[in-house]
Amino acid sequence: MLRGLGASADQRGAGPAARRAIDLARQSIRQGRPAPSFDQIVDATKKIVDQESETLLRPVINATGVLIHTNLGRSPLGRRQLDAVVEIAGSYSNLEYDVEEGRRSSRYDHAAKLLTALTGAEAALVTNNNAAAVLVTLVALCAEKEVLISRGELVEIGGEFRIPDVMALSGSRLVEVGTTNRTRLADYRSKVTDATAAILKVHPSNYRVVGFTASVPARKLGELARSTGIPFIHDVGSGFMSAPAGASWAREEPLVDVALSDGADIVTFSGDKLLGGPQAGIILGRGPLVEKIARHPLLRAVRVDKMTLAALEETLRAHMEDRLTDLPLWSMALAATEELEARAKHLAEALSAANKGLKAEAQPVASVTGGGSLPGEELASWAIALDHGERSAAELGRALRHAETPVIGRIADDRLLLDLRSVPPGQDPQLLALVTNALATA
Ligand SMILES: *Cc1c(COP(=O)(O)O)cnc(C)c1O
After folding, report:
1. Stretch 228-250: mean pLDDT
2. How far is CA 212 from the centre of its chain?
3. In this structure, are residues 350 and 221 in contact, taking their beta carbons and an 8 Å threshold?
4. What domains does the chain contain, in order, with CATH numbers?
5. How buried is 182 (Cβ within 10 angstroms: 0-12 exposed, 13-18 middle, 19+ buried)?
6. Atom of ligand 1 lying closest to residue 238 CA
7. Per-residue confidence at 9, pLDDT binned at 50, 70, 90?
8. Is the pLDDT of residue 101 over 50?
9. Of 40, 90, 170, 406, which one has the fewest beta carbons inside 10 Å?
């Protein structure tokens, strides 16, 4: 039955698909329709295989211009990060083994060494993601006690992560401080009691309060924490390590080492936002507090995997050795606008020439970093604007999503924009071929 399908279709599970196609043919015959030919059944099988493989995890081309797109997997990993994953995952490793002493050690030690050297923190831990980092921190340090947080920071980040819910889950009691738009240091001070376990500051990642506003700088909270002896926990969100030249759009983002020197006792952030690494949660801070978190049984349930640790180590090394552009996220973020312009013009010309009825034009646009970092900040970028005489922008968008590797753009002013800020330059020839094929077959 698999004759005519080819080896690749066979590998992609054509057997069960062929049985489904035959079942459908039998049903159709029972209902009195003529028996399909062999070729028709082969075609039906191919269609089932294609439909099924479309829903499996696979690469897409991110032409949305959003660099840290949570739905598209946030930060892509670079060659060295991937090589590290392959090397560690494909063999046994010293994950929890001290080779020198010949005995058990901790999986957190390797990354902790790099994290403390990079940031100046006393100690470090890594979890599955930042939501887990915040949760395990609150559970270990604040359960059944009060946590002070500004009303302006009771935020929801990306759907399921709501600070009030996380606090409730941790068993700590939320004490709201100040008002939604204005919170002062005195508001915090007036809420400190014997039951206070921590002061929590959460970076309001994906929105910004504008107008008549006031918030307390982290440095002031650090001073209050020190004078009262209450730990100060700062969830900075994106893991911004250094402000590279040419990234003025990032100046509002809290830097990790500044958060620590401003007096935070614990700092948490994600591995796959501005850090440019794998999905992970990082916990940095004072030795005794990190130790307390490390001993809590919940840490076991949010344990980080060795593949993540391997990719994270390479990510941290890139930061330490000033090889930021080894990280695809930073390579794309720091690409010169003129470079994007030249690519957009070249691709637009090639697309117009290759596709009848398609008008492709290079167009200056503004992209965003996304992923809950830098709300309101824009990066200058260039896009290819697609306009088709017979097809709407939505139809073009659908056709490109059905390309062999889906191409995801965005629609503006009835045109489909393919923003090159989030497309690595090496993908240009593939992008050209995918768009051309998708428009020819759709
Ligand atoms: C993104 C974000 C989180 C959630 O991090 P994940 O790694 O997605 O779990 C929590 N807090 C802040 C401030 C964030 O920006």
Report:
1. 91
2. 32
3. no
4. 61-72+332-441 (3.90.1150.110), 79-323 (3.40.640.10)
5. middle
6. 15
7. very low
8. yes
9. 90
